[in-house]
Amino acid sequence: ADIMRKLMDMGQMLTFNQTMNVDAAVMIAEENGIKIDISTEKAGEELLDSVVQTEEDLQLESRPPVVTIMGHVDHGKTSLLDAIRQTKVAEGEAGGITQHIGAYTVAVRGKQVTFLDTPGHEAFTAMRGRGAKITDIVILVVAADDGVMPQTIEAINHAKAASVSMIVAINKIDKPGANIDRVKNALSEHGLISESWGGDTIMVEVSAKEKTGLDTLLEMILLQAEVLELKADPHRLAKGVVVEAKLERGRGPVATVLVQSGTLRVGDVFVVGTFSGKVRALITHTGAKVQEAGPSIPVEVAGLPGVPSAGDVFQVVKDERVAREIAEDRARKQRTADLSGSAKVTLDDLFAKIKEGSVKELALVIKSDVQGSAEALTAGVEKLATDAVKLRVIHSGVGGITESDVLLAAASNAIVVGFNVRPEPKASALAEQQGVDIRLYTIIYDAMAEIKAAMEGLLEPTLKERMLGRAEVRQVFTVSKAGVIAGSYVVDGTITRAAVGVRVLRDNVVVYEGKLGSLRRFKDDVREVQQGYECGISVENFNDIKAGDIIEAYAIDKIAAKL
Known about the structure:
The protein has about 575 residues and is of the alpha+beta class. The chain is built from 14 helices and 31 strands.
């Protein structure tokens, strides 16, 4: 009981039959005057390391490139893939039936190229967040008639943050409104300058519909792969990454695994995430069963005891005991990590982390209401960098803070800075779950001053805003004495008179911030209205409310700065 009390004082809530970490054990022993010698058996992860290191010296051979296609919605990513696949894959497919496993291999001039059909850059980022570098080349698809769009810029920033080489495919050149120079011009503003303009980005003009330019694109991929000199050792125990995983009726959990090194064979014992098992079957994207798969080859693996996460490392080990131990060890660590919550960098603990030396670079994701202020904030922040800490803006954009921004911040251990914008409810929930710090400002200098103060360890007590409720405006009435009343439906939380202030949002951008004027249900003034009820709201000195706006009520709590 004394030991448990001591552990509680140290902030560790453990029960009798849970393992405590070695440092805590040493401290408690020393306090009681007991001297400890530590000798440990190899635990899970170390066993895995020794398995990897004791193998024969690497015999590197060249491997096919892994290509991910990214770009804005509706710019033709899927149709481009289909065009490449019909010309190259349909010839070798059994009955032309394709299993959708999210990845497939195409033969180009006797060489293989693997394409990953990830559903957009969210999946790409989630994988990066787990430390999985799976892509060698990103193909950025831009429609010639539409040009560079917000998601195009996001894709560029995601690829740059992951430091992968990019090839731009300018699609839809057969359309009447196509303007290739305009696209190249817009891309050059984001640091992608075409080779024909003296830059170093390969840009290929294609039409997925007419199937033109595809051969050139594939040649460029092979050329880029040659420059990158991609190599792997096919003779060691296989290691790969889960691209996607699902539960299938009649087959149980299956995962698409991209082999990165070694050769994966049927009957191999493996560990993936917190699961261990034996490979029962390997299936290619054509639906054919194979006995083995080498580096850069995607296969569907059957024989998993559960569904792993995308981005988990798939590692083959020599015997089942080791596999089981590693999986159990990971499951135990996962439970502890879930209980303690994930530690990301926040502005509050930035100074402490700088002093520890664990933070050398502060990454930021900036979102604002207009492009100009995003640029001004980006330029201002980058000037704040010191010798101790570099500041890097990995993505800046216009509009509300979305889930995709929070995912990027989580993957890059970044802080999200919002300027005159608000996070979407789903993004707030995700940020809380992932431990991502979202900071919202209305004055650029406040944002700069707070980042600077955090770097110097001089943060004032933070005023943390607490969202009380959100109401959606359904109808607007004008009342002669009271001005404009918004007939609203409370979609989240509670709208209360105790709110410090309210703000009116249109498309997640703040259009007005002020005080609550009146709050009524039917004819009566009320103190609060809860979720699921309708009410009439007026905002002091603001009459430009429109149907579809969101009215957000908030309170402000004072929290002492922690360093």
